[in-house]
Design brief:
Strand order of the largest sheet: 3-4-1-2-8-7-10-9
CATH superfamily of the largest domain: Haem-degrading domain
Helix content: 40-55%
CATH topology of the largest domain: Beta-Lactamase
Number of helices: 11
Distance between the termini: 44 Å
């Protein structure tokens, strides 16, 4: 069957990862810590990465802002302004219809292909990736083209290869809060200086290697998967979706990874532990992130201590579990 023209196309994984890696390079150069997400124009996640010590919650906020920019095809700052204009009832209705837009913050940017069509959105958030200037950062690094450049927007625009344009309102006012008056005759600044490849992200590199090992085994098995690597609290560290994988795969991988990390057992064990009717639902209501009691998630231990969870989703659950186990063995 021929595919009709005009359909929504998502950015491919390799290109999305390249944008995220540029963001991490710039973030490390500036001494920042946070997470970065790329969501396809369809609203499906493509990839997300958290820098070492990037802080819990940043990946979820970045993913939400990227979703808004990708699906609404505008900077999330513009969407935020629209929601403020239309009134509370309409804004709440938007969030109910679009639950992945639950954090409608500024800073997300649409990504366009050479024809100008939006194929994804990218955003950042985290412990120190924000629109506020850290007081201990070199001031010259926060100036781009002679203008104050807040950390979050600077990193995102650098990653996209775009000139800096602030997305969070008055950069001059935030500069004054951190540093005092902006110079009358400012230097061009070093905000746009090329960033070297990040060299101090061991957890991130490990998580990417684990995701790569999963994809290598999935490709050999002839299946398409999504991968989620989470920390021991269930917060994402690395998320990747192979091109063409089922859209549900992302949510399945997140659920089994969180189950394995939070409970420190393979994800399918939960079903046997909580057999009384309604108990699993009660458990899910207690936890800070969704969990899934199905094969595909495994705890990851270092020196006898669970430090992470690996989740694989997409194919039949038993296949996901086998791929996850093989990938973990390959890195042990």
């Amino acid at each position: 069957m021929a595919v009709p023209g005009g359909r929504t196309t998502d950015l491919d994984l390799a290109s999305a990862r390249s944008i995220v890696e540029r963001a991490i390079d710039k973030g490390e150069q500036l001494g920042l810590r946070g997470g970065f997400a790329v969501v396809g124009a369809s609203g499906a996640l493509v990839t997300a990465s958290r820098m070492d010590r990037g802080g819990a919650g940043g990946m979820a906020r970045a993913r939400s802002k990227a979703w808004i920019s990708a699906t609404q095809q505008i900077p999330s700052f513009e969407h935020l302004q629209r929601m403020g204009f239309v009134g509370e009832q309409v804004a709440n209705g938007f969030k109910q219809c679009s639950p992945e837009a639950r954090f409608p913050g500024a800073g997300g940017m649409p990504i366009r292909d050479p024809s100008g069509a939006v194929v994804a959105g990218v955003a950042a958030s985290g412990a120190t990736v924000s629109p506020f200037f850290p007081t201990d950062i070199a001031q010259e690094n926060m100036i781009a083209d002679g203008k104050p450049a807040n950390p979050e927007d600077l990193v995102v625009h650098y990653a996209m290869g775009l000139p800096y344009v602030g997305q969070h309102g008055d950069d001059h006012k935030r500069w004054e809060i951190s540093f005092g008056p902006f110079p009358d005759d400012p230097p061009a600044g070093r905000g746009n200086d090329p960033a070297p490849v990040a060299a101090d992200q061991p957890e991130h590199r490990w998580a990417v290697s684990l995701a790569d090992a999963v994809m290598e085994r999935a490709q050999a098995a002839g299946v398409l998967v999504a991968i989620s690597v989470v920390d021991h609290r269930g917060d994402p560290v690395q998320q990747d979706v192979m091109d063409g994988a089922p859209t549900a795969a992302t949510f399945l991988a997140d659920g089994v990874a969180a189950a394995a990390a939070l409970m420190q057992v393979p994800s399918h064990v939960l079903a046997g532990r909580y057999q009384e009717p309604g108990t699993l639902a009660q458990l899910a209501a207690l936890l800070p992130v969704p969990v899934l009691a199905s094969p595909g998630g495994l705890p990851v231990s270092v020196d006898g201590r669970v430090v992470a969870g690996l989740g694989v989703g997409g194919p039949p659950p038993h296949v996901c579990a086998e791929i996850a186990q093989d990938a973990l063995r390959s890195l042990s």
